[in-house]
Each structure stands twice: as structure tokens, then as C-alpha cells.
Specification:
- Helices cover about 55% and strands about 10% of the residues.
- By secondary structure, it is an alpha/beta fold.
- The chain has an 8-stranded mixed sheet with strand order 3-2-4-1-5-6-7-8, sandwiched between helices.
- Strand 2, helix 6 and strand 3 form a beta-alpha-beta unit.
- Helix 9 packs parallel to helix 10, helix 17 crosses helix 19 and helix 19 packs across helix 20.
- The site of magnesium ion has 6 residues, from helix 5.
- It is found in: Cytoplasm.
- One of its GO terms (molecular function) is GTP binding.
Length: about 425
């Protein structure tokens, strides 16, 4: 059991106060084994090992971090470098926004289109689907059932065997929609024909985003596949499916490293809700066969950042306070207790707070969080774009009223103003010292 091996080596590291070259080499060997067993491409593993070794031997662990934690953290950071940071969302910034799905037959495109449609419906969008798969028997029927259940517009014609014509007609039919998702075939007589077809469809659809679907269970072939598809069209993001079984997704990792597109979501089952935003930490822990990487990293990071997240404090004090900052504040409040109490702990802050801010109830907090979950990443970062049509969409997506969205925006604006006013004061005195 490799996970166990790795854990054992990590244990060896635990008691040491100085990093020993031999031990680092041992850890790296274990990690190499774990990664190769998880189907990560060998060349990639070797490159990675070299970087990890250099860093582990040359970088001084921060004070309070044991060599073990330090090495794990380096391993983790380098792996995250490969798969990309936390998932970026689908950012729908024009109308109609067109998404093209590509990938081999059986990779899970059609199923995933159902999943992402449900996900986007929750955000208040209404995707229209075009079926251009003329190869799989009953491809249209599969989509018909899926879209009927979810109440989504579908364009397709089981009699028409011309994928390009289907794409054109579908686009024409859905001109007025917000969002169009194009499903494609993953099979042809010859692989080259399939790739040619993807290139042609892409030229017709002019997608705003191409999503490559990779079966998480296929191992090493994933890299080749991704490379082949990326030659026909620019892959914008990746979804890895079938991570509900024993597959570790190492092949997919190699694919990602090869084409450099981020993983946005993963599929974890056949049902429409078996769909998650990509979480690099979980993916990597799984890849390494280690369950406890999370807590180790948390500890290492906590010590390193000295308890206060100075970036967010600085951002707040400079007046940049987004809905996202407010969201993390809410999260913190959930843990720490009511806002007023928290603010009162900071001299000078309590009285500066708007009255209704201190009356934040748990019920409201819950409501605001649901509303924010229906916003896109862009909206959370740039709340000023939330005008009438977005208010409606957010309300629809969260199952609440327009007034609720407006109430949240009002709360945000009042809070932001209060913080801005506060930030203008000099950061000296007891407050300044507290924050530094
Ligand atoms: P397509 O040919 O790329 O459109 O693939 P389909 O969407 O038709 O899926 C092929 C098979 O994989 C179906 O039996 C799906 O139920 C199954 N499938 C798709 N995604 C997942 C997943 O995340 N987990 C599991 N276990 N099965 C999946
Ligand atoms: Mg399909």
C-alpha cells in the first residue's frame, strides 16, 4: 500500500529538526512511486521530483514548521502548480455564450452536459443544448430525456447525419439564448475524421469556451487524447469524470500538464448532481494516497501567515472590499460569533459599524450566502456590475426574490462604506499595532 509507505516515510521525517538529504531522497522516491502508480506520466514525475528535491534541500523551513511539514508543503505546492489553483468558474460574460464539449466517446460528455446545465441553472442561467453527435445510436434520444427532465431547450435531428449542418441550424435556432452548449460525437471511422470534424465544428460554433472531457479512469492515454484534441481547437478547460471509483486521475493530471488548461469540475457518479467544483487539495491527496495532507498543510500555513491574513486586511483598508471579502467575513463570523462582538474586540471598530450590520442574524447570514452562491466569480469580485438583469438572474437561480438580492447589495454597500471610512484613518495607534 503506497499511501501507507508514504505515510511511514513522512513519519520518519517527523522527529527531525534538520533536513537530511537521504531522507528527502527517500520521500521523493515514495512520491514518485505513488504518482507513477496513479498513472502520472513518467517524464512529468521526474521533472517534478527534481524541483521538489531542489526546493526541499535549499529552502529554509519557516519558523515553527517541522522539516516534514515543510517537505509535504513543497510537494503539495508543486503539484498544485501543475493542476492549477482553485477552480475558476465558467464566466458567462456575453450573449449568447457558447460552450463546445469535446472528448472521446464514453468519456462522459453528454452526462456532464446535463450536470453542468443543472449547475448553471442554479445560477439562474438557462442553457440551450445542441446535439451534433451523429455517430452514437440514440445520442439524440439520450439528450432528449436529459433535457426534458430539466426543462432545457434542445436542438437536434436524428435523421440529419451532417454534424456541421446540425451545428449551424442549432446556433440559428438559439440565437436569442444566454447560453448555448454544443455536444459532439466522440467517435468516427477514423480518429483523424473525428479530429477534423471537431476542427470544423469549432470553426462554425466559434465557442467562447471549449471544454475537454476526460475519463478519469483511462490512465496514460489521457495525455495523448488531450494533445490530439488540443491540436484541433484551443481547449479552455477540462472536466475529469468517473472519479467516484478507485481511479486516481493521474492520467488526467498528465493531460492537464500537457495542454495547460485548468480543471474546472469533476464528475463523481452517473447522476446529475454527482458533480463538484475541482478542489486541487482533494485531488492531490487522492493522487498521493494520503488522507492527511490537508491538516498538515493547514498547520504549516497557519504558522507561516502568523494568524492574520494580511492581504485581505490590506485590501480592506485600501477600500477594495468585494462581495467575496464579505463572504469570507461571513464564514469567519459563523466561526467566531456575532459581528458586533467581533468588531468590539477591535478598538474603534465597533462604533463605526452600521446599525443593521450588528443585527446580522444567522438566518440572514444563511440567506445571503445562498444568494452569493448564485453569483458568478466575476460578480463577487466586481459587485458594481450587478444591475437589474443580473439581480433577476441571481434571484431566479437562488429561488429568492429580487428584493432579497437588493437587500444584500444594500448591506454590502453600507458595510463597504463603513470600512472605507475607517480605512482613511491613520493606521497608527493601538489599532495599527493590532493589525500589523
Ligand atoms: P459521451 O459518449 O462522452 O457522451 O459519454 P456519456 O455521457 O454517454 O457517458 C458514458 C458513460 O459514462 C455513461 O454510462 C455514463 O453514465 C457514465 N458516466 C459519465 N460520467 C460519469 C461519472 O462521473 N461517474 C461514473 N461512474 N460514470 C459516469
Ligand atoms: Mg454523448
Amino acid at each position: 500500500n503506497l499511501g501507507k509507505n508514504l505515510t511511514n516515510t513522512m513519519k520518519k521525517l517527523a522527529g527531525m529538526s534538520i533536513i537530511d538529504k537521504e531522507v528527502v531522497k527517500e520521500v521523493i522516491k515514495d512520491i514518485q512511486r505513488a504518482l507513477i502508480q496513479s498513472d502520472v506520466n513518467i517524464k512529468l514525475v521526474l521533472n517534478l521530483s527534481k524541483t521538489i528535491e531542489d526546493r526541499a534541500l535549499n529552502e529554509e523551513p519557516p519558523k515553527g514548521v517541522t522539516p516534514k511539514e515543510h517537505v509535504i508543503k513543497i510537494v503539495y505546492e508543486e503539484l498544485v502548480n501543475l493542476v492549477g489553483e482553485k477552480a475558476q468558474e465558467v464566466e458567462i460574460d456575453k450573449k449568447p455564450y457558447k460552450i463546445l464539449f469535446v472528448g472521446l466517446q464514453g468519456s462522459g460528455k453528454t452526462t456532464t452536459i446535463g450536470k453542468i446545465s443543472r449547475y448553471l441553472q442554479k445560477k439562474g442561467f438557462n442553457p440551450a443544448i445542441i446535439c451534433t453527435d451523429t455517430w452514437r445510436p440514440a445520442a439524440y434520444e439520450q439528450l432528449r430525456q436529459l433535457t426534458e427532465n430539466m426543462n432545457l431547450p434542445l436542438y437536434g435531428d436524428p435523421e440529419n447525419k451532417d454534424a456541421l449542418d446540425l451545428a449551424k441550424k442549432g446556433l440559428n435556432e438559439f440565437k436569442k439564448q444566454d447560453l448555448i452548449i454544443v455536444d459532439t460525437a466522440g467517435r468516427h471511422k477514423e480518429e483523424k475524421d473525428l479530429l477534423d470534424e471537431m476542427e470544423e465544428i469549432s470553426a462554425i460554433v466559434k465557442p467562447d469556451e471549449v471544454i475537454l472531457v476526460i475519463d478519469g479512469t483511462i490512465g496514460q492515454q489521457a495525455r495523448e487524447q488531450a494533445l490530439a484534441f488540443s491540436k484541433t481547437t484551443k481547449i479552455g478547460s477540462i472536466i475529469i469524470t468517473k472519479l467516484d471509483g478507485s481511479a486516481k486521475g493521474g492520467g488526467a493530471l498528465s493531460a492537464v500538464a500537457e495542454i495547460g488548461a485548468p480543471i474546472k469540475f469533476i464528475g463523481t457518479g452517473e447522476r446529475v448532481d454527482d458533480f463538484e467544483a475541482f478542489d486541487p487539495e482533494r485531488f492531490i491527496s487522492r493522487l498521493l494516497g494520503m488522507g492527511d495532507i490537508r491538516s498538515l498543510i493547514e498547520k504549516a500555513e497557519e504558522i507561516a501567515k502568523d494568524d492574520i491574513d494580511m492581504d485581505s486586511v490590506d485590501a480592506m483598508m485600501s477600500g477594495k472590499f468585494t462581495l467575496k471579502d464579505m463572504y469570507s467575513q461571513f464564514e469567519m463570523m459563523n466561526k467566531m460569533g456575532p459581528m458586533k462582538q467581533v468588531m468590539n474586540m477591535i478598538p474603534g471598530m465597533g462604533s463605526k459599524l452600521p446599525k443593521n450590520a450588528s443585527q446580522m442574524t444567522e438566518e440572514k447570514l444563511g440567506k445571503y450566502k445562498i444568494l452569493m452562491d448564485s453569483m458568478t466569480e466575476y460578480e463577487l469580485e466586481h459587485p458594481e456590475v450587478i444591475k437589474q438583469s443580473r439581480v433577476k438572474r441571481i434571484a431566479r437561480g437562488s429561488g429568492m426574490r429580487n428584493e432579497d438580492v437588493k437587500e444584500l447589495m444594500k448591506y454590502y454597500n453600507v458595510t463597504k462604506k463603513a470600512i472605507k471610512g475607517f480605512g482613511k484613518r491613520k493606521m497608527g495607534g493601538p489599532m495599527g499595532q493590532m493589525m500589523r
